[in-house]
Amino acid sequence: MLHGRRILLIISGGIAAYKGLDLIRRLKERGASVRCVLTAGAQQFITPLSAAALSGEKAYTDLFSLTDESEMGHLRLAQESDLLVVAPASADLLAKMAGGLADDLASTALLATDKPILVAPAMNFRMWGHAATQANLATLAARGVKRIGPNSGPLAENESGMGRMAEPLEIVAAVEAIFAGAAALTGKRALVTSGPTHEPIDPVRYIANRSSGKQGHAIAAALVQLGADCTLVSGPTEEPDPPGVKVVQVTTAREMLAACETALPVDIAVCAAAVADWRTEGTDAKLKKKEGTIPSLTLVENPDILARLSQAGDRRPKLVVGFAAETENVVANAQAKRVRKNCDWILANDVSPATGVFGGDQNTIHLVDAQGTEDWPSLTKRDVGERLAQRIAAFFKAEKST
Ligand code: PMT
Question: Quick one: CA torsion of 89, 386, 240, 108, rounded to 10 degrees?
Fold first, then answer.
């Protein structure tokens, strides 16, 4: 059921727009409140009046209507919804979304939101198969936009093939699945570390590594999408702050440890940061180059944040997940690391230069726990984040039922 859920339904142009009207009815039957936006194309097939009559709310059409702007600006329209559903999603609107265009109310609301988005594409099968449409869909998927359909079947103009919009009840099921998943970690507090640490040698030089923060940030974003209250403690990265995540910026391993300890107690800790194992003793004065002498650096060991969190006594998170960055004997080394650091799961990844894992967008994970190893296929780091978040949700669900 969808009681209390607020859905912004964006109906774009196409013969399937009439099914958008049925969708309003189906969503409302399940208790959702539905506000509609109709593009100019949609209005060639259905009227705002029919959408308003079925939804029981004004249907919005115009980006620059003074009335709409004063009553309900496009920003509020998007933000006061729990989910944006685009059904039908025309090839044109998908292209606008992928390109970040905002030239009408629908595309502006879609650009102005950080709420989840579900699209139900509908178009001619040649448009569906076109490389441009497929590239746009891949871009949207990489940004976390969910999709239902299209199906194969009869299309407009006596044609048939892939491009028929999913049926309203299928779309309702997808909406329900999103909300079911979205709530899975509600009430759980999570801590994620991400990025490298920089360890100063002197005021201008430091020791660092190649971590970009992509993996850790993707995990934090995925945990928040499932409803967790997430703190991300990040070393220096170029990655944007994931929406809805509390971000604490740090530089050194010791600062990272302090920020993690401040974030306790949490239910879940995921240590994805590439923390420098050593720091130099450091100096406040810049090391001077002297003819004929090469300075030597004395390294001292940094605190192990993952091990500290795993051994935090009654403040230990219920589930502690570490990573293992390995270049050989990946799984065996990860198994030993899990036991040594006393964490629950280790996500082992091969970081040999040829894999491009450090700094890249893909990752191949082996999840090691006390029971054994689960090999994941090569995934985008975003997908790794989502898969891990789902796995964590399943862990807590199993906990609850025992
Ligand atoms: O940031 P990206 O470019 O996206 O790359 C992702 C990644 C390769 C950095 C990530 O997937 C990864 O493997 N992170 C862990 C890197 C690492 O430091 O691995 P390790 O095997 O040296 O450490 C094992 C575990 O101990 C890790 O969870 C690490 O966060 C933690 N650790 C290590 C040292 C230390 N002083 N404190 C720690 O908490």
Answer: 20
CATH hierarchy code of domain 189-401: 3.40.50.10300
Residue with CA at minimum distance from ligand 1 atom 13: 325
Q: Is the peptide bond before 242 cis (omega within 30 degrees of 0)?
A: no
Q: Which of 209, 302, 349, 363 is catalytic?
A: 209
Distance between Cα 158 and ligand 1 center (Å) = 56
Cα–Cα distance, 336 to 297 (Å, whole number)? 30
CA-nearest residue for atom 8, ligand 1, is 358
Tell me the per-residue pLDDT of 80-122, one tens digit each, with 9 for 90 and over: 888 999 999 999 999 999 999 999 999 999 999 988 999 999 9
Report the greatest alpha carbon distance in the chain: 86
- Tell me, which fold does domain 6-181 have in CATH? Rossmann fold (3.40.50)
Smallest CA-to-CA distance from 378 within 362, 399, 402 is with 362
Residue 227 has a pLDDT of 87
Place of tokens 């050593």: 278
Per domain, the residue ranges of the chain are 6-181, 189-401
pTM for the whole structure: 0.69
